[in-house]
Amino acid sequence: MGWNTRPWAGRVAGVALMGLAGAAPATAEMILTAPDGRKVELRDDFTWRYLPKTGRVIQDVWNPGGCGLTGTASVRLQNDAVVQRIVTWYQWQSSQQSTRAEVYDANGAVVVLGPMQRGSCDSRETSWCEGILTVGRTMRAGVYYLQATPPRICQNAQSNGQGFVRVYAGGPATAIDGSPVPAPRPQPGGEGLSGYTRTERAAISGHNNRHLKGVSPADCARACDRERSFICKSFDYYRDSRACDLSDKSAAEVGLKRNYPPYDHYSRR
Fold this sequence. Notes:
By secondary structure, the chain is mainly beta. It has an 8-stranded antiparallel β-sheet, with no helix packed on it. Strands 16-22-19-20-18 form a 5-stranded antiparallel β-sheet, covered by helices on one side. Strands 3-4-5 form a 3-stranded antiparallel β-sheet, with no helix packed on it. It contains 2 helices and 22 strands. It is elongated and about 65 Å long. The protein has 3 domains: about 1-55, no CATH class; about 55-180, Jelly Rolls, CATH 2.60.120; about 190-269, Hepatocyte Growth Factor.
């Protein structure tokens, strides 16, 4: 649903707006409830729109600051939930309407795969728009990663280097025949990380013996297990480009660089 360019001029769909103009930062959005129950989103440029009914927001990593780029956004579910869709803030090419996206779990197994669709855009910087990945299924509590290709998800200091993400939940999710949708099962190959301890946003500086591209964390773990030219003790996974570096050193031997958003470190247990 696009933005309505008619100025809200103090009242939209019966929502009184007096006294709100100075209540938020200049770049902030405001979300109000109309008398009919619909949500109305207001922008600082005086445009507005009705928000689609997408369920409740169970995770919200979003702010009005300027954007740097990353390829991933962390999805953290405190409880099992029927996730309807995952929305991020993405820099699109002018004619682009969709892009490849996937959600994988902490073991590197892909649980959601599908095109991410272009949604509502910034009224001034029109290359920045929502990226909407429809899920419509039950997901177990835990940490997941939304990965978009090319890597153009918004992140900044206010989000602590994390990709912008909003997770909408509601339910129940059902299959075409009306039966409940089961929780996603990891795809084959996700078991390779059982022998590794993961440290988020961390890496070993240097000491890289082998570089792999286009891989999942589970792929890197299997490669480390099978390595014969050196004793592989750990690897750093670069989420933005799906690459990793195998190392013959452990964090205990050479130390670990922490608060390093592009990487996750995996060490043998």
